[in-house]
């Protein structure tokens, strides 16, 4: 059994764990970078993971897909009063003919999306976002994991020192426990029987 890396902030006053796992840090932990390789959603759910993926996609001239995905997230989780303006902005930037960051969506999904944005709501871009998500998962994500950018980051990532085990009471060497009352009674009875036998023999 190993200690928490670098420490358990819930039972100590050490906040290093929170600092090392902040949204953006100078250098992430190795465990954090390895988690990005578990699944595409692990990568997208991590703010630093998205930033690293964006850096890679910009070098590959295919950052528009991730930008579109993030814009759809902003629509879904943003303020209700701004939904209409944000949907219109997404359309002009990613979906309109000749858009500066046009994304490649199949005709059926595009038709459904364009019809939906006439009456915008926070989930109107879900189908288009899901289509782009699977495109990135199938193509961009595997290429990123094979890239030198990811491999170099993984090689340089921090491996925190293990917390001293003395911090965890349940990991300390157990002292000799007191005998149970049942055992004490059994021992006392045996001693009494022994004394009675000796007296009868005397």
TrEMBL record:
Q: Which residues form the RGS domain?
A: 39-154
Q: Where is this region: Disordered?
A: 174-202
Q: Does the keyword Ribosomal protein apply?
A: no
Q: Which UniProt keywords apply?
A: Signal transduction inhibitor
One GO BP annotation is: negative regulation of signal transduction
In the UniProt record, does the keyword DNA repair occur? Answer: no
- InterPro entries the UniProt entry points to: RGS, RGS6/7/9/11, RGS_sf, RGS_subdomain_2
Q: Which SUPFAM superfamilies match?
A: Regulator of G-protein signaling, RGS
Q: What is this protein called?
A: RGS domain-containing protein
- Species whose genome carries this gene: Coilia grayii (Gray's grenadier anchovy)
């Amino acid at each position: 059994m190993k200690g928490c890396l670098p420490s358990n902030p819930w039972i100590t006053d050490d906040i290093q764990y929170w600092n090392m796992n902040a949204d953006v840090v100078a250098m992430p932990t190795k465990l954090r970078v390895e988690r990005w390789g578990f699944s595409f959603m692990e990568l997208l759910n991590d703010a630093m993971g998205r930033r690293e993926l964006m850096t890679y996609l910009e070098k590959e001239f295919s950052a528009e897909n991730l930008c579109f995905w993030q814009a759809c997230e902003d629509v879904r989780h943003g303020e209700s009063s701004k939904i209409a303006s944000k949907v219109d902005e997404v359309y002009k930037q990613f979906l309109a003919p000749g858009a500066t960051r046009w994304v490649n969506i199949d005709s059926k999904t595009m038709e459904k999306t364009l019809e939906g944005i006439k009456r915008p709501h926070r989930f109107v871009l879900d189908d288009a976002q899901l289509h782009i998500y699977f495109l990135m998962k199938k193509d961009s994500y595997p290429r990123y994991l094979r890239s030198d950018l990811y491999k170099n980051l993984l090689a340089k990532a921090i491996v925190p020192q293990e917390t001293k085990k003395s911090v965890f009471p349940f990991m300390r060497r157990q002292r000799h426990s007191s005998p149970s009352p049942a055992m004490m009674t059994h021992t006392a009875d045996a001693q009494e029987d022994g004394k009675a036998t000796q007296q009868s023999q005397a």
